[in-house]
Amino acid sequence: MRIVLVGPPGAGKGTQAQFIASHLSIPKISTGDIFRANVSGGTELGRQAKQYMDRGDLVPDEVTIAMVRDRLAEDDARDGFLLDGFPRNVPQAETLKKILSADFDARLDIVLELVVDEDEVVRRLSGRRTCERCGRIWHVDFDDKKDDVCDDCGGHLFQRDDDKEDVVRHRLEVYQEQTAPLVQFYADEGILKGIDATGPVEEVTKRALDELRPLEK
């Protein structure tokens, strides 16, 4: 099965991608993983990407797409994959469609959109606190943290800049600008399924797997 997973920051994409891919015995492929593998492996694409990353610039679409094409050609992705974080926009989606058709005589089976209310995303992300000593992340609501001390190592807990409410809301605005057209693109393709991403992780996973079950062979 060939799946794309989309959703806003804080929707739980990474967690759900891992569970779904494991259930289906297909690789979870994220652009972050691909970048790290190419850079650490010293590939030509990795060297190109590193030049941009070292300057703090975005890696151009053509480099990202070339990395994705190479990853999809690996043996473990032959019978399916789950893409997390790619495509991010309509041009990337159109290119992915062409790659799958031309190089693999295949197409996407389904695009799962994790749907979560903006205020819930803000609550999830702005409530996170990071231990400055061991790096563990706690949550003021989910972990019932009433102090700023890590229960594991006694380190001080702080709120990262990108977890502050105003930053989170800006990230959501950017996501909506970039991804709303992508979601509509896949809706027009007839392969988009929305998944309610609120509630316990296990319930969200069950909703996703329920949508996938008719497609399992």
Automatic annotation (TrEMBL):
<feature type="binding site">
    <location>
        <position position="128"/>
    </location>
    <ligand>
        <name>ATP</name>
    </ligand>
</feature>
<keyword id="KW-0545">Nucleotide biosynthesis</keyword>
<comment type="pathway">
    <text>Purine metabolism; AMP biosynthesis via salvage pathway; AMP from ADP: step 1/1.</text>
</comment>
<dbReference type="Pfam" id="PF00406">
    <property type="entry name" value="ADK"/>
</dbReference>
<dbReference type="InterPro" id="IPR027417">
    <property type="entry name" value="P-loop_NTPase"/>
</dbReference>
<keyword id="KW-0808">Transferase</keyword>
<feature type="binding site">
    <location>
        <position position="160"/>
    </location>
    <ligand>
        <name>AMP</name>
    </ligand>
</feature>
<dbReference type="InterPro" id="IPR033690">
    <property type="entry name" value="Adenylat_kinase_CS"/>
</dbReference>
<dbReference type="InterPro" id="IPR007862">
    <property type="entry name" value="Adenylate_kinase_lid-dom"/>
</dbReference>
<keyword id="KW-0479">Metal-binding</keyword>
<comment type="subunit">
    <text>Monomer.</text>
</comment>
<dbReference type="InterPro" id="IPR000850">
    <property type="entry name" value="Adenylat/UMP-CMP_kin"/>
</dbReference>
<feature type="region of interest" description="NMP">
    <location>
        <begin position="30"/>
        <end position="59"/>
    </location>
</feature>
<keyword id="KW-0418">Kinase</keyword>
<feature type="domain" description="Adenylate kinase active site lid">
    <location>
        <begin position="128"/>
        <end position="162"/>
    </location>
</feature>
<keyword id="KW-0862">Zinc</keyword>
<feature type="binding site">
    <location>
        <position position="199"/>
    </location>
    <ligand>
        <name>ATP</name>
    </ligand>
</feature>
<keyword id="KW-0067">ATP-binding</keyword>
<feature type="binding site">
    <location>
        <position position="92"/>
    </location>
    <ligand>
        <name>AMP</name>
    </ligand>
</feature>
<feature type="binding site">
    <location>
        <begin position="85"/>
        <end position="88"/>
    </location>
    <ligand>
        <name>AMP</name>
    </ligand>
</feature>
<feature type="binding site">
    <location>
        <position position="171"/>
    </location>
    <ligand>
        <name>AMP</name>
    </ligand>
</feature>
<feature type="binding site">
    <location>
        <position position="31"/>
    </location>
    <ligand>
        <name>AMP</name>
    </ligand>
</feature>
<keyword id="KW-0963">Cytoplasm</keyword>
<feature type="binding site">
    <location>
        <position position="134"/>
    </location>
    <ligand>
        <name>Zn(2+)</name>
    </ligand>
</feature>
<feature type="binding site">
    <location>
        <position position="36"/>
    </location>
    <ligand>
        <name>AMP</name>
    </ligand>
</feature>
<comment type="function">
    <text>Catalyzes the reversible transfer of the terminal phosphate group between ATP and AMP. Plays an important role in cellular energy homeostasis and in adenine nucleotide metabolism.</text>
</comment>
<feature type="binding site">
    <location>
        <begin position="10"/>
        <end position="15"/>
    </location>
    <ligand>
        <name>ATP</name>
    </ligand>
</feature>
<protein>
    <recommendedName>
        <fullName>Adenylate kinase</fullName>
        <ecNumber>2.7.4.3</ecNumber>
    </recommendedName>
</protein>
<feature type="binding site">
    <location>
        <position position="150"/>
    </location>
    <ligand>
        <name>Zn(2+)</name>
    </ligand>
</feature>
<keyword id="KW-0547">Nucleotide-binding</keyword>
<dbReference type="Pfam" id="PF05191">
    <property type="entry name" value="ADK_lid"/>
</dbReference>
<feature type="binding site">
    <location>
        <position position="153"/>
    </location>
    <ligand>
        <name>Zn(2+)</name>
    </ligand>
</feature>
<feature type="binding site">
    <location>
        <position position="131"/>
    </location>
    <ligand>
        <name>Zn(2+)</name>
    </ligand>
</feature>
<comment type="similarity">
    <text>Belongs to the adenylate kinase family.</text>
</comment>
<dbReference type="GO" id="GO:0016301">
    <property type="term" value="F:kinase activity"/>
</dbReference>
<dbReference type="InterPro" id="IPR006259">
    <property type="entry name" value="Adenyl_kin_sub"/>
</dbReference>
<feature type="binding site">
    <location>
        <begin position="57"/>
        <end position="59"/>
    </location>
    <ligand>
        <name>AMP</name>
    </ligand>
</feature>
